[in-house]
From TrEMBL:
Residues 23-93, 175-267 form the PAS domain. Keywords: Coiled coil. This is PAS domain S-box protein. Residues 1-22, 97-149 form the PAC domain. Residues 137-164 form a coiled coil. One of its GO terms (biological process) is regulation of DNA-templated transcription. SUPFAM superfamilies: PYP-like sensor domain (PAS domain). InterPro entries: Biofilm_reg_signaling, PAS, PAS-assoc_C, PAS-like_dom_sf, PAS_4, PAS_fold.
Length: 267
């Protein structure tokens, strides 16, 4: 009895299958070891598979996630939002990166996530699904919001302080103007000097007597002004006053624009 058969060498195919199986197992181990949520969906937005972190987040075993949609795992409002994003990615064939969104975990707690959704294609270039990669950024978001709140509070305080200073400045300016009006209304000459020996006050009566305007006198050093007949003597008298001593002279000689000298009794 003879037996005939056709024998094919399938060694190469078996090797390829083994390599593919090994690669798949390696990928699954890798995906299961990372805390990031990774999941695959078909064009109907139904889950094909997901990693351990995703399964734990929704509290559903990995083998029971197949064919689940967002509506099966999340509140309706969130699911609607996720579904719209899925549809946009798969219809456009373009990735959506770093979407910041809220989600509710299996314990009912609202958390924040950063999600990227990438379409994947078959050999003909047709979209056949998408992969989602989601990171829980709740702690980062809370820290960022706390920092922003602190920044806003600081800006508010700065604005309030600025307003207070502006109000104080306005009051000081009004007081200064009020005093200046009193000085300008005086019938006597009012002249004062600062610690740098510059004229700080020159009232209307001084203008009238000498012919020199306030704007040309105030802020200038005694030695630079022609209106003072003996600037050296005046500088000595001013220094005596700052030292708490009585000046040697009780008069001030002013020289008007007309070169007429005016002797003023000081006090």
């Amino acid at each position: 009895v003879a037996t005939r058969g056709i024998f094919r060498d399938i060694t190469k195919r078996k090797k390829t299958e083994e390599e593919l199986k090994q690669k798949t197992e390696q990928q699954q181990v890798l995906l299961s070891s990372i805390p990031t949520f990774v999941y695959y969906k078909n064009t109907e937005s139904k889950l094909i598979t997901a990693n351990k972190a995703f399964a734990e987040m929704v509290n559903v075993p990995i083998d029971q996630l197949v064919d689940k949609t967002a509506y099966d795992l999340f509140p309706k409002e969130q699911a609607e939002h996720f579904h719209i994003d899925d549809k946009s990615v798969m219809e456009s064939g373009k990735s959506a990166m770093n979407i910041e969104e809220k989600f509710t975990d299996a314990k009912g707690k609202t958390r924040w996530a950063s999600t990227s959704k990438i379409p994947y294609f078959d050999d003909k270039g047709q979209v056949i699904g998408m992969v989602g990669i989601t990171s829980d950024i709740t702690e980062h978001k809370m820290a960022k919001d706390a920092l922003q709140k602190a920044h806003d509070e600081l800006e508010k305080r700065v604005e309030e302080r600025t307003a207070e200073l502006a109000k104080s400045h306005g009051e000081l300016l009004r007081t200064k103007n009020y005093l200046q009006n009193i000085i300008d209304s005086a019938s006597e000459i009012v002249v004062s000097f600062d610690k740098d020996n510059k004229v700080s006050t020159w009232n209307k009566q001084a203008e009238y007597i000498t012919g020199f305007k306030q704007k040309n006198i105030v802020g200038r050093h005694i030695s630079k002004l022609k209106v003072f007949d003996n600037p050296k003597e005046l500088l000595d008298d001013v220094q005596y006053i700052y030292d708490g001593k009585k000046p040697e002279s009780d008069t001030l000689v002013l020289k008007a624009k007309s070169d007429v000298k005016k002797i003023i009794k000081t006090s």
